[in-house]
Amino acid sequence: MTPAGFITIDLYHCSGNATGVNIASSRPDTIAQVLTGKTPEQVLDTVPLLFSLCGNAQAYAALQACRVALGMTAEPELDSARDMLVQLETLREHAWRILLDWPVFIGLAQHKKSLAELLKFDGLFKRNLFRHGEAFKFDSCLDIDVAQLLKLIDDLETLIDVSIFNGRLAAFRLLNDEAQLKDWLTQNNALAANMLKHLYHLNWIAIGQNDIACLPGLDGDTLDRQLRQDLAAFSRMPQWQGRCFEATLLNRQLSQPLIAALQGCYGNGLIVRMLARLLEVALIPSRLRQLLTQTKLPEMNTASDGIGLAQVQAARGLLIHRLELRQGRVCDYCIVAPTEWNFHPEGVVVQGLKQLQAGNPNDLQRQAELLINAVDPCVQYALHLRPQP
């Protein structure tokens, strides 16, 4: 079950050049209905059943919010292990787009076998990190097999190296600017390289570039005050300090030299977004090794009066959970997913689509699909091209 709804995008055009965008979401208000009246323990049992996408991130955010609301102490060692599962899930979600969607865009066969192999890692990591594989419970206990986990990370890295980078993952990690990127693309038949070369060939590398900025870090107390003021409005169409922001994986890669260099030329255009996805995939194995050898304090926000607020970086961007407890049971629960920021009626997808100038409806459709895929909604969507009346 995924109480996520559906997004409808109407892209108006004149002879294939965008003239306007209308976006509407039918996200149902089911979360509060489903979780109201439940105990925190029941919340942790229920949340993983509600989400087919980013289930680890959703479960982790729910656990953090419940712990804060109950005034429980931090669990740095367990949270490092949980963060490993969220990182693994992030890699899987990105690989889903790269291995299944990117080949379709450039007329190649989907890499279904590689994705199927990748899907097996979640259960393997859980069993080698937590007793009985239970990671997101109040009584979760670590049961770490370091040697087996290091082997799993090595196997994971080899899989993405072969299936996405054609053995040139290490070289990709070292890229610092566009000249080095173009050298890497030369005579490179990796799936990632073929996708990027396709964009260069069509001169679509900067499409969708717009002025919507990446969401800054949100102070927990300020965020909670804003949520208290108008919870329903924020959860449906969030803004921060009166402005729309994007909350995508690009936010996490802004400091990478390659992204910084390409942003100087193409802003938040299509190639920058695709490179950010590839960089995150390339860097996650190293991040997993790091988390295995260190503890990390969780990013939890203090609260009072039975209120718990949690922020977790999920695959598609910032995920926020907020709950209120009264007499030990949930009286209100709110989730703000990255899609609410990114597919806001005035947000980054709308502004990006408005910039498209394809010259014919077929190319406009292809450009729009590429841009939407790069931002990546966590719900199903329908894109309709509408001739400008």
TrEMBL record:
InterPro entries: Ni-dep_hyd_lsu, NiFe-Hase_large, NiFe/NiFeSe_hydrgnase_LSU. Pfam families: NiFeSe_Hases. It comes from the Bacteria. This is Ni,Fe-hydrogenase I large subunit.
